[in-house]
Structures are given as structure tokens and as C-alpha cells.
Amino acid sequence: MDMIYTLDQIDSVAKTLLKQHGSKPIWAFFAPMGAGKTTLISHVCKQIGVNDAVASPTFAIMNEYEANGKTIYHMDWYRLEDEAEARRTGVEAAMDEADLCFIEWPEKAPALLPEGTLRLEIEILDPEHRRIFIPS
Questions:
Q1: 90-113 burial string, b = 16+ CB within 10 Å, else e?
Q2: pLDDT class of 1 with cuts at 50, 70, 90
Q3: CATH number of the structural domain spanning residue 110
Q4: What's the pLDDT at 55?
Q5: I need a labelling partner for 46 at 20 to 30 A (CA). Which of 16, 37, 55, 78 fits?
Q6: Structural domain tally of the chain?
Q7: Which domain holds residue 126?
Q8: d(Cα 59, Cα 99) in Å, to the nearest integer?
């Protein structure tokens, strides 16, 4: 999967991601600050039926949502110092427990990502365009 999109096309990107990778329980979003990770995750959550407002969990580290009887965790590891701190916050248990888990800034503790994690990379092409792809 490799797509270039604008904010006007983000719902279509969310639908495509779910259609192609909805069976993957853990999604790790690798992208620079301002690339739109939280915005894309909020649109994916909307597509799967989350009714709550989806916001960045930067300060909380983790937000929990429910949709159609499924538990969804949205994590932001930006403020974590290292893997040890990530473990202390309970991210491993949450990944095991969740039906679906979205992780922003996974590069802070990459060894905690289980095998089979969907790795998504977002590039900022210009102020309006983003590229999302799955690295080989």
C-alpha cells in the first residue's frame, strides 16, 4: 500500500487501511511531528464506529475507546523516555488486551512492538499532501 492524500481524502484512506489491514490488531504509525497521525487515527476510529472524540493521548499516554463491543487503545509514546518507562505505564498489557491498538511514536520503544505489528509510515510531502506507505 502506498497512497498520497490530502485532508479531503482522509476518510477514503481510513477506509482503505481498514479494508486491507483491519485484521491486524496493532498499528504503529512512524511519522514526524505534524504529519497527521492523530488526525488519521481519529478517522480510522470513526470508520470502525467510535463515537467518542478521538484526541491525542500525548499527556495521558493512552486513551481507551469502545466500538461495537471491541476495545481500542490509542497510545502516544512521544513523552516516554525508553522501553522501561513504557513497560511501567502498562503498554504491553494494553496491547495484549486490546482488540485494536494504534501507536504514535513507536520508535520510542520499538522492541515492545509484537511480531506482526502493522508498520505504517507517513511522510509530509508539502503542507497539504501526505504519503502513507508500508515499508518493505
A1: ebeebbeebebbbbbbbebbeebb
A2: confident
A3: 3.40.50.300
A4: 83
A5: 78
A6: 1
A7: 2-133
A8: 23
Q: E strands of the chain, at which residues?
A: 2-5, 26-30, 62-67, 70-76, 100-104, 118-124, 130-133
Residue pair 80/86 in contact (Cβ under 8 Å)? The answer is yes
Q: What's the DSSP call for residue 128? A: S
The single-letter code of the amino acid at 101 is C
Distance, CA of 16 to CA of 58 (rounded, Å): 26
pLDDT class for 75, splitting at 50, 70, 90? very high
Among 112, 115, 133, 136, CA closest to 35: 133
pTM exceeds 0.90 for this model? yes
State the residue for C-alpha cell 510531502: 125
Q: For the segment 93-124, what is each residue's pLDDT rounded down to a tens digit?
A: 999 999 999 999 999 999 999 999 999 999 99
Whose cell is 508500508? That residue is 134
